[in-house]
Amino acid sequence: MEEMNLKNYAYIGDAVWELHIRKKTVFITENSKKLHEITTAKVKMDFQAQLLRELEPILTEEEKEIARRGRNLSIPVGRRQNQSEYRQATSFEVLIGWWYFNNMQRLNEIFENIESYL
To answer: pTM of the full predicted structure?
Structure first.
């Protein structure tokens, strides 16, 4: 498969992550407001940054390099946002997208590994 632009991996990674979270939260409640609150708490920048920090010890060298490149993407970050967390969250989304296209088995392992945080 041809290598994709890292921003595109982040784009698809964001969607894959949100779908993963929605698949879990939909069984928690039928209240749409509560569903939204639970879901947004898990797709927020700070939560994704935390998950990346938790995953770092188990990442392969290749995955660490992809994460590093994802952190270094030129991305618009508002002054009020924490740039470090935003970059970490983008890096997390890049990895999710990369695994989605290149290694679904590893993506599923990662989802299992972070299950306790969800």
So the answer is: 0.91
Neighbours of 89 (CB within 10 A): 27
Tell me the pLDDT of the chain (118 aa) as tens digits: 457 899 999 999 999 999 999 999 999 988 999 999 999 999 999 999 999 999 999 999 999 999 999 999 887 666 556 888 889 999 999 999 999 999 999 999 999 999 988 8
Nearest-Å Rg of the Cα atoms of the chain is 14
67 is written with which tokens?
């994460």
- d(CA 38, CA 55) in angstroms, rounded, equals 22
Tokens 């920048």, residue? 45
Q: Tokens 């946002």, residue?
A: 81
**Whether 52 contacts 96, CB under 8 Å:** no
Catalytic residues: 14
d(CA 46, CA 98): 20
How many whole angstroms from its chain centre is CA 76? 18
If you count them, how many residues does the chain have? 118
